[in-house]
Amino acid sequence: MPKLVNLTAHLLEQHGHDPTSRDLAAIINQVVFASKLISRDINKAGLADILGSTGQFNVQAEEVQKLDAHANQLLVELLSGWPRVRAIGSEEIDAIIDLPEHKNTGCYVIMLDPLDGSSNIDVNVSVGTIFSIFKIEPCARLTKKQYLLGGDWVTAAGYVLYGSSTMLVFSSGYGVHGFTLDPSIGEFLLSHPHLRFPDKSSVYSINEAYSPRWSEELRGYIDQAKTDRDVTGKPKKARYIGSLVSDFHRNLLTGGVYLYPGDAAAPQGKLRLMFEAIPMAFLAHQAGGRASDGRRPILELRPRELHQRTPLYIGDRREIAHLEKVLAGA
Ligand code: P6P
After folding, report:
1. Ligand 1, from 116, 118, 246, 275: best to mutate by most atoms within 8 Å of Cβ?
2. For the domain 7-194, what is the CATH code?
3. Which of 9, 49, 195, 257 is placed for a possible disulfide with 315 were both Cys, Cβ 3.0 to 4.6 Å?
4. Burial 146-184 (b: 16+ CB within 10 A, else e)
């Protein structure tokens, strides 16, 4: 019988009993609680009046799906009630949610993409929740711009993937670990300890419909990928689900890179620095991978705006480093 480890036991094992572990365990448990409710609702989406869009548009000018709004509300409500949380940013909400009632106890800022890839819900394709936890040092007053913390303030980050099974993959600075939800007991159990990118990059994930807008260098890189062999001598594969969490998760397990470039139409690309790029970059680095905007490491970027976008090249360390050289014209 394998040793059964649930999330709380794992966190206490990782952090011992210092205050950080209790804070993280509490905050991550709120995210996990919300994700269990989201998972339940996604799995019956076709049967409940929860498919389709709300007819409203978010700050990204994207149509808000009913489940987007539902997931956002669950996460914000459960996290706002926790005294150690000082502020919350969400891809679905224009401004930061400041919690002045926690100004003397709140030491953490949470950034959320409540339901990434939500346009896939109605066609039953995997989607995910992305979260990151930033620790304010010291737990001082939160000035207006102080919540825009860069990658070196991340204490923990992860995603919940609502797929053939519901998985939590996260890191609190001690490697990346995967937990699978056992719905019969409502617990996330450790199923993929110490996840690391394998030493082969056999997959590239990119939306090739936009290739006419790419730089010459990127077009050359993708053309080359079509004739390259991976370290096992096999041709590379193109896999693109249209859901960052799903593409990243597959690449983490089987080896590969996910690319969402800036292009002639959108020089900063589509993905959000705070809600998608930084948390996924934190995970990538913890798993021995690399994440870049094409020139600089994502975790070294200084956020200027809550909803700012960034190009994202993430995955196998050597492949991303090679791609950066190609994009620089080397
Ligand atoms: P496109 C979902 O909206 C998302 O943010 C990522 O999850 C996904 O990889 C990407 O956008 C898909 O965007 O432009 O290829 O449809």
Report:
1. 116
2. 3.30.540.10
3. 257
4. ebbbbbebbbbbbbbbbbeebbbbbbbeeebbbbbbeee
